[in-house]
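Table S2 (text version). Query chain:
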Amino acid sequence: MIQALVFDLMGTCTDWRSSILSALDSKPPLADPHSFAMDWRAGFFAEIHRRFQAGEDPEDIDITHRRVLDRLLSERNIGMDSAWDEETRDDIVRSWHIQQAWPDAVKGIETLKNKFFVIVLANGTTRLQLDIIQSSQLPFHTLLSSQLLGLTKPDPKIYQKVIDLLNLKPEECLMVAAHAYDLRAAASAGMKTAYIHRSTEDPEEDMDCLKQTFDFFVEGTDGSDVSGLVQLATILQA
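Corresponding structure-token output:
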């Protein structure tokens, strides 16, 4: 029987794209802010996976985001533009700390919290998680960061560490994420898996295939407050 739900944060519970597009809107103009935001996110994931494959230690996400931002500006030939000075770049990197929840997230987590432990497990620093939780008002029981655990998703050891900290069996823990790589790794540690389909995440994954891969597949792309995590609560009879 499932006793704990372990959540990814950005993309799964928060709409990072709207937050970043809002921040970009107040910065020097870009030809295509939407494409820039998506490339920034994709570049971040590429860096996370590169570091994991290389066996490198977890890195402060602010540092990763800044490195990817600098590369994107250079690739678009605006890296030398004085409007994109150090202060402007640092300011927009900090915008990742302020995010709004998906419409279904707060209500869904509040409902799930009545029946299960609800915990965040996400790459990044504890300060990043605290800032996101404060701005999004997501009501989790506790937060576990890669910085705190000294490991990075998708290392199987990080999922086992959480299982051990909760003093539960793997099958008593449900990993909830909008990223297939995250759930595949959690499943390898014996956890149950719930995929939340979000419009901002996993553009290269085959959703029909994922429906057959994980224990639960929940639509969360319509922007309503009755899908996503609210629907997951219904499925789990919370």
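Notes on Table S2: Strands lie at 4-7, 117-122, 142-145, 173-177, 192-197, 216-219. The two ends are 13 Å apart (CA to CA).
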